[in-house]
Design goal:
Chain lengths: 428, 256
């Protein structure tokens, strides 16, 4: 089989981490590969034989964009392993901290990484120079709301150290919680504007195709914590059984692992959460979903950008609500372990989708770790969509390498891939 | 002034810190940003006055790219713990884990088209002119480095520990008073002792102070506080994996 054409994006800009895309157009097929060239970082090896307190401080270094999920999820796993019962106040503060990361991550992705594509510019600086300054500033404000929440509760917005097993080193003062509440209120209209922006763009039909969406079944409302995983076609399983259901494969061209569910590619992330759980959404975001129902399209990856904008609206309202429930915040002691050894499992909804941690602890020392990140889960599905985009354009007569390259980059960016997360990397 | 902002193997947190400083839009006007691939698809590696490099060298590609960046930069700044010290992924070096072994543990018995390596700091491969420490760096320091370059001057690196800032802030000492495993005495300052203000013992994320002899007295204190040898070795090495004499020093303090 002769290769007719090869389209290569050696280093994909405007994503977290380092990866390229390779598309081979042959006589009878088109193959796309997401080539992850970022080096491996062996997090399960480097946290092994460390005390669990130290291990949970190392995990956030997997990725700066989702450092908070990479702190709070292993904390859940340790608490599950050692039967630690955090207080109700701790649970609320953690959810608030988590949602701060969610808003920051979505804002960074949408305004700094995605919007330049939609407007035809190289970066947000150019967007700002060419009359889009207001929009970039909106994005920076929303990012600031998320960063402020993580700073107030977590001690800083990248690698928050204040969240620890059992609680918090220091509980934030009431005035700071009230400031968060106010900022979230101020950000709401900007997030609504983002939804309206993305609702102006039709999704490219080349990437339409059925797919399974996986997400958690939240404990409460449209929350980020749960212990059961559900699929859009009705399957469900407990987190303890994840290994029986979620397989990971290795490809020779990538330091990232690649997820399969029931032998097929699947997807996770904001669109998957909306597909599976949008009935749990309330308030302004619910109104927007009803208004733009057709944009919550389960068959098109571009719906993920729209879904992230919807989530910013919902999570800002939820942040206001949570902050208002914390007006009587008080100092608390840290919850202690009931035992020193055990196996713990946790799954949460990180900005890019489900994040799974397993930790085996013996006498306070970490003996086994398994981490499955959202990017590793959706990589094979992303390759399917990249192939479809290239194939669609090619068959419609578009043969310009650069043009096709730009379009397949947009496909990749819609997934919001986190390459550092995907090469952290998990045990087979 | 032309600048480039680059990332090797890392969490991208240093680049993200640079991207989200409050005055990023002013910076984008004041400086001619030639390369910032995390934010822009317009860049290519070309001559710049100052290049900032995040991340450790963990692949052959990292090494090639780093050398190309160096050839094209008048001044090269290593930003963050990965570039300066190898980062948390450098622990493998301290624990004498071979790349092959780590690889097989994680990926199984397979061959890759690319070869990875045990993480190394960038000064193992190129000359580094300045270091901007942190995991990630503080906004104030990022602005200080940019500002000094902009006026044709250069930044002064801190060589004193977090402890100094902590004393000045008037915090109670969680190491002496509570026996917490605080690495503030051996970690380079600049964070204003943030974690200690939150009752969290310093984990050393900004990297070791240049004078590593401070580690000896801290190990002695840890021993007196009843912390076990293996724990002290592992904790001290998280962000100081390239301090080659660390394990021997601790063995000497703890005795046989």
């Amino acid at each position: 089989m002769k290769i007719k054409k090869e389209i290569k994006v050696d280093h994909l800009a405007r994503i977290e981490g380092k990866a390229g895309i390779d598309v081979e157009i042959k006589d009878d097929s088109i193959d796309a590969r997401m080539v992850v060239t970022e080096g491996p970082r062996f997090f399960e090896v480097i946290t092994k034989n460390k005390r669990y307190e130290d291990a949970v401080a190392i995990f956030p270094r997997i990725c700066s964009f989702c450092c908070t999920p990479h702190k709070l999820t292993p904390i859940e796993a340790v608490e599950d392993a050692l039967d630690i019962q955090p207080s109700e106040q701790t649970k609320k503060l953690r959810e608030l901290l988590y949602l701060g990361n969610m808003v920051e991550s979505h804002a960074l992705h949408l305004y700094l990484l995605v919007v330049p594509d939609y407007l035809g510019y190289s970066d947000a600086f150019e967007v700002a120079r060419r009359g889009g300054g207001g929009m970039v500033k909106d994005g920076i404000f929303l990012k600031d709301v998320g960063a402020e929440i993580q700073t107030v509760i977590g001690s800083r917005s990248i690698h928050p150290e204040n969240a620890i097993v059992g609680g918090f080193g220091k509980v934030p003062p009431k005035e700071k919680i009230e400031k968060i509440e106010k900022m979230a209120g101020e950000g709401l209209q900007k997030a609504v504007d983002a939804v309206e922006f993305f609702a102006e763009y039709e999704y490219p039909s080349y990437v339409n195709g059925s797919r399974r969406h996986l997400s958690i079944k939240p404990y409460e409302g449209y929350g980020v914590y749960g212990n059961e995983i559900i699929s859009s076609d009705g399957h469900s399983f407990k987190i303890e059984d994840y290994k029986e259901h979620l397989n990971e494969e290795v490809a020779s061209y990538s330091f990232a692992k690649r997820g399969k569910f029931m032998g097929e590619p699947y997807t996770v992330g904001a669109i998957s959460r909306l597909v599976n759980n949008s009935a749990l959404i309330t308030g302004k975001a619910k109104e927007l979903i009803e208004k733009y129902r057709e944009f919550v399209n389960p068959e098109n990856c571009f719906a993920n950008n729209f879904a992230q904008a919807i989530e910013m609206v919902y999570f800002l309202e939820r942040i206001k609500e949570l902050a208002s429930e914390l007006h009587d915040i008080k100092d608390e002691s840290i919850a202690k372990p009931e035992r020193n050894s055990g196996d713990g499992y946790a799954v949460t909804e990180a900005p890019r989708g489900m994040l799974i941690y397993y930790m085996g602890i013996e006498d306070g020392i970490v003996k086994n770790v398994d981490v499955i990140t959202p990017t590793a889960m959706f990589l094979p599905m992303m390759e399917v969509d990249i192939s479809s985009m290239a194939k669609g354009l090619w068959e419609d007569g578009y043969q310009d390498r650069e043009f096709i390259g730009k379009k397949i980059e947009m496909v990749a960016r819609s997934y919001d891939p986190c390459i550092s997360c995907s090469v952290h990397v998990t045990r087979l | 002034m032309k600048i480039g902002i680059h990332g090797l193997t890392s969490c991208y947190g240093c680049q993200l810190s640079m991207a989200v400083v409050k005055r990023i839009l002013d910076i984008s006007e004041k400086f001619d940003i030639k390369y910032f691939y995390m934010l822009s698809s317009a860049g290519k590696i070309e001559h710049v006055d100052v290049a900032f490099v995040e991340g450790s060298v963990s692949t052959e590609e990292d090494e090639k790219e780093l050398k190309m960046i160096r050839e094209n930069a008048d001044v090269l700044v290593a930003i963050g713990s990965c570039a300066i010290h190898g980062g948390v992924q450098g622990i493998l070096f301290n624990e004498n884990v071979e790349y092959e072994e780590a690889f097989r543990t994680v990926y199984g018995n397979r061959d890759m088209e690319y070869e990875g390596r045990i993480a190394q700091p960038i000064d193992k491969f190129v000359k580094v002119d300045y270091r901007l420490p942190g995991c990630p760096p503080e906004e104030e320091e990022i602005m200080y480095y940019l500002a000094t370059f902009a006026i044709g001057s250069w930044p002064e690196e801190k060589d004193y520990p977090v402890c100094a800032e902590c004393r000045r802030a008037g915090n109670p000492c969680i190491l002496i008073e509570k026996g917490e495993p605080c690495l503030g005495p051996v970690t380079v300052a600049g964070c204003d002792a943030r974690c200690i203000k939150y009752n969290i013992p310093c984990i050393g994320c900004r990297g070791p102070v240049p004078d590593v002899s401070w580690f000896d007295s801290l190990a002695m204190t840890f021993k007196e506080k009843g912390m076990d040898r293996e724990y002290v070795k592992k904790r001290m090495a998280i962000f100081a994996s390239r301090y080659e004499g660390l394990n021997e020093m601790i063995d000497k303090i703890y005795g046989d």
